[in-house]
């Protein structure tokens, strides 16, 4: 593969140069076809061409950042904001006033509003719901029938996020409707991102009608949840109360549209990422039965005969390391984009104002330069004496900086509890129709997992 290499030229006398152009582009499409046909392999080999590499998507130049240190620099620098094709494709769903897409002062205010609901000391209050939902999975899987793990994983993710962050008995029935709507929307969004046909998605074909119906229903649902909470007069200590009580810069209550967009902007990424990770965890338990056996042993030792509870989580260190290793090899958020708001410099290269940047936690977290036996599933690499050797920013599945996932503690507690509950009750095997290949959409997850849960 050829690389049109230009050496970094940031010295006192020379202006910083253009990053090298990645090889393998074709006329008209540039590297776009590679990003569609085999995006994981494409992103993973870019570092061989440079620390920052130009790639062409049609007529457009995008800057790929390939080293842990520089991805950390991008995530921490105010010169880069949330924007670019990934985010534009999500705007229909996430709205324009939610925390996941806002920038600048609006984003800072929104983070201040939502942060308390995710703080480490707020998480124990969610423990009973997380445990109840984890044990509900164990109960549901007793039948011995083949399980559609895609549906099961997203269901538990939506139910935990909705019931913890918007408490109230009315959530139980609504959580089911949210699940059904989001399932339709997630698959439709993926298609809209990789095949951006714009107005053609407005043509009243059955798939488009179904997508639009789910989108409309989700918006109605969120309005109902907000109206019910207001009518109840209750103010439980949760995210919804924080949003309803929030004030803007002038001390005025925030607008209805912003409350609405905020609820969707938190529920949607929360459910999609946790759902994808639960699927990857179940794939790991299926393909590495010895990992499940060790979790079973750890739960027996720490918990004994009673059901595993939230309070046990911090003692389940092996189980937590299995979750971490799963997030390393199968990061649900496998690609991130940013836009430069000013002419700037990265790794000695010039990045022009308005440039789109792309980087991949998947590529960074599987890089042989950061990890020995990089493709191997090895939870013990997260033992403290070994984890200290991992280079800075080589493991950031929740990102870093001002856009870092607010839900890292919440998600780790939830995923560890679910993994402990299901692995201590079952071994898993593939059932007919299971397809464990990666499905690369807005998130990364196994394509279609059909599993049988075999009681221990
Ligand atoms: C942002 C990953 C779970 C809510 C992010 C980002 C990552 C991420 C990488 C940063 C995006 C960027 O830098 O552009 C994950 C993973 C999860 C997870 C791997 C689980 C395995 C959740 C959950 C929630 C949530 C459960 C909420 C219930 C959000 C929100 C943002 C975000 C609101 C936007 C933050 C901002 O822009 O300030 N997540 N997430 N995430 N995540 Fe998560």
UniProtKB/TrEMBL annotation:
It comes from the Bacteria. Residues 1-23 are annotated as: Disordered. Keywords: Heme, Iron, Metal-binding, Monooxygenase, Oxidoreductase. It holds the Pfam family p450. CDD domains: CYP170A1-like. The keyword Metal-binding applies. Belongs to the cytochrome P450 family. This is Cytochrome P450. It comes from Streptomyces prasinus. The lineage of its organism: Bacteria, Bacillati, Actinomycetota, Actinomycetes, Kitasatosporales.
